[in-house]
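hey can u check if this looks right to u? its 493 residues, i copy pasted from the old doc so theres a chance i mangled smth
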Amino acid sequence: MAKKVFGPASEKQKWFLESNANIIVYGGAMGGGKSFCGLLRHLRWVNDPNYRGYIIRKQQTTIMKAGGLFDEAATLYRQFNPKVKVNKKSMTFTFPSGAVIAMGHLETDDDAEKWRGLQLSAAMVDEATQLSEDHTLVLLSRLRSKANMVPNLFLTCNPSPDSYLRKWIDWWIYPKTHELAGRPNPERDGRIRWFIRLNNEMIWADTKEELLETYGNRDEKGNILPEDSEDQHCRPLSLQFISATIYDNPPLIRANPGYLANLQGLKRVKKERDLYGNWDIREEAAGFFKREFLGSPVNDFEYDFVQYCRAWDIAGSLPCEALPNPDWTAGVLMGKTKFGEYVILDVVRFRARYGEVIQRIIQTAASDPQGTQIILPQEPGQAGKAAGQMMIKELIAEGFYARMRPTNKSKVIRFQPFAAACEAGIVKYVRGDWNEDFFAELEAFDGSRGKKDDQCDACADSFITLAQKLNIPSFSAGLLSTNLKSNNPFSNI
């Protein structure tokens, strides 16, 4: 009987399996063999009795379902070593050397606390874009090993434009100005870069030495430390991004040539994502808004405005270790013209504690056009109402017109009138440094939880407020034949 051979099937799989970077992101299109290679990579160290490897997904049910990750791992590891002990109850694989590979999940903050007590020689996160950044960083902080190896975290995933990983691998991806925007850049594919985290932000360099020269005497908050300090100095870590497509998995193409044909026959969006591994492409029908609806930017001085409104969506958290990516406080200023057009004039977005938020709102109001209505959200419950009333009192005391708007309707219902007006061509915008972040959030909005929607909510409330005061054209009648005195369709929103 021929001996079973385990190893890479392509050059990129070899890069992944042999990498000694602290973090390896092996991600991209469908059919690249990402999950299998992630399971296979653990076998590098199973002859070391001190090795403790982990395989992690967001939800345990996806691990244990029939034919899922556990079954796939059990088949592979038994083929590699028939003496491996497989324990489905504890989700562990114990090798004759004493090395252990275990499976687990990480979905909630309670789950994260359990992982904080472990030491990980190496950890594979499968479908890594499903995890939050802070949960991934918890795993990174637990990389410690008595085994003879460099502790590492390897992340297998498909592209996701809204994932924290898109930000991490930005250097390896063609920029938005390139004709292949969003696809991995083959000239940078597989190259290792180094980073440190200062104030929850990643600072990058081509070498470890560059970072040490500039930041080696600082702590994670950027404070300069004396050389003999016992506090934790910044520690550069290496990251390697390796793209994966079906072309990097020849055995699959040979075994199932129809799979490649199916990918090649997909529509544009799915083809870009599933065949080419595009990290920026979005489902065209997933959301309600496209920036193309608004056309080119306009000059605000060309319009005769009859009303202004700045609506706010309020948050009160700063980034921290437990919550590195909290919600934003966002304020959208919109003007309405005497001809029933709407112009987005300004968007501000910041993070501050609740005590500072009202002061920032007052400062913004002072620079907005005179007579601008200020809309604050009235959160459900007595506490939310009381907090809103306190802010309203402070704004009125400063001489501004402010009121609350209930947020008891779904985000989708609140956003749809604005999206419909955009599609009808009666919403414009002025050029500003806020444009890109604003449009990216609105295009990604689909009402689902987990996505940032602070600017969406503020924009919807600003539009609805202005639409209630003066009737807007009917979308179906056409702009030229619209009866401006018809009933306002948004009065009940």
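The radius of gyration is 27 Å.
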